[in-house]
Amino acid sequence: MAASCVAVLALSLSLPLLLLIAWKRWRRERMARHAVVVVLGDVGRSPRMQYHALSLAKCGFSVTLLGFCNSKPHDELLQSDRIRIVPLTELERLAVGPHILQYGVKVVFQAVHLLWKLMCSEPAAYIFLQNPPGLPAIAVCWFVACLCGTKLVIDWHNYGYSIMGLVHGPSHCLVLLAKWYEKLCGRLSHLNLCVTSEMREDLAENWGIKAVTVYDKPASFFKETPLDLQHRLFMKLGRTYPALRASSDPLDPATERSAFTERDANSGMVTRLRGRPALLVSSTSWTEDEDFSIFLAALEKFEQLILNGESLPSLVCVITGKGPLKEHYSHLIGQKHLQHIQVCTPWLEAEDYPLLLGSADLGVCLHKSSSGLDLPMKVVDMFGCCLPVCAVNFRCLRELVKHEENGLVFEDAEELAAQLQMLFSKFPDPAGKLNQFRKNLRESKQLRWDESWKQTVLPLLVDT
């Protein structure tokens, strides 16, 4: 009888312990196969974080992607059965009260909301966080990581305080507070990634943060666009944007014609139009770190060259993107009276953007980093499409754009206008500089994001 009582007592005490061990093992196994990617911004306009999510999914993780859903992400991400997008609520700043109070209310709301969403997510082995914006996301993600035994990975795209400094000035109290916060909280992560070698060195020397450089690489869908797909894209966009429509109708009404291409009604063959305009593409977030007045001034100088009798083509300039300064620059563009240059500013679907880059003749980049330490991903995407680029110069651009090899670097509108004149002289000349740059890009055998991620990031996760 006594032995039976002892056995029952032992079983009663050990059963909860066994259940706890089993639960912890189940939770650890679930964590090992799950990752959270956090973007305190628009997911559709955060390609690098979309790529992190896709790469994690392809490596066997289930992924929860937290962010604002203001624009559509890429189809590959939406179609993945391993990725679940959880929308965050974006709070607009209060319309009344001091600026600091407005900003403070927004930060507190975002902190509480993000904390709630993270705590409601299933256990994760890793939290990948984009910085900027890091206020309040770094502190919240670190707190959750401590509670749940999760590893925090910060991906440094730039410094948030330097972007704020463009608007408020470098000595503003909010800018100084943001810098202190980033420097303090940035040290709390288990792993730091960054986009350039110069940023890695700056983080180490001035912030005491050890980071690993993971260069942006184009995704597999950034490639040269076949002529048939180019025609379909131009016909589709031409219904909305007159700059992409044909300037004259074909003799055969059944023939399809865009500003650049023509499909024969009988054979269905697509050809490029003789005497077609050159297609320039630029993409932007329409913020203070991109001065499009330089581009507009260069276009005016290019127009004057044509009027002076230079042998140059007409231009169609497509500037894609959304952002706070779009209305300002659209107004400036509307005031220009250019005869040989047309400009349109569409917001493209995620699937159309790579097709446009793969159809263009030249890319132009006006991105001038607020910190001087990040690189424009738009140029990475252009290079993936073998599209030569003219880019405005800044501190670490040489890590991406090789002058006279895959494109050109300029300082001001005069230099950009001269480069456009040189590149488009006798356009479309197969022996010209533009085609030489394109050939160099084709022969460079660029590494794609998935291959690069497996070589650089995946081993770091295993070692963390």
TrEMBL record:
It comes from the Eukaryota. One of its GO terms (molecular function) is chitobiosyldiphosphodolichol beta-mannosyltransferase activity. This is Chitobiosyldiphosphodolichol beta-mannosyltransferase. Keywords: Endoplasmic reticulum, Glycosyltransferase, Membrane, Phosphoprotein, Signal-anchor, Transferase, Transmembrane, Transmembrane helix. Residues 50-212 form the Glycosyltransferase subfamily 4-like N-terminal domain. The chain crosses the membrane at residues 6-23. It is a single-pass membrane protein. It is found in: Endoplasmic reticulum membrane. It comes from Myotis myotis. Mannosyltransferase that operates in the biosynthetic pathway of dolichol-linked oligosaccharides, the glycan precursors employed in protein asparagine (N)-glycosylation. The assembly of dolichol-linked oligosaccharides begins on the cytosolic side of the endoplasmic reticulum membrane and finishes in its lumen. The sequential addition of sugars to dolichol pyrophosphate produces dolichol-linked oligosaccharides containing fourteen sugars, including two GlcNAcs, nine mannoses and three glucoses. Its EC number is 2.4.1.142. The lineage of its organism: Eukaryota, Metazoa, Chordata, Craniata, Vertebrata. SUPFAM superfamilies: UDP-Glycosyltransferase/glycogen phosphorylase (SSF53756). Pathway: Protein modification; protein glycosylation. Belongs to the glycosyltransferase group 1 family. Glycosyltransferase 33 subfamily. It catalyses: an N,N'-diacetylchitobiosyl-diphospho-di-trans,poly-cis-dolichol + GDP-alpha-D-mannose = a beta-D-Man-(1->4)-beta-D-GlcNAc-(1->4)-alpha-D-GlcNAc-diphospho-di-trans,poly-cis-dolichol + GDP + H(+). Residues 286-426 form the Glycosyl transferase family domain. One of its GO terms (cellular component) is endoplasmic reticulum membrane. It holds the Pfam family Glycos_transf_1. InterPro entries: ALG1-like, Glyco_trans_1, Glyco_trans_4-like_N.
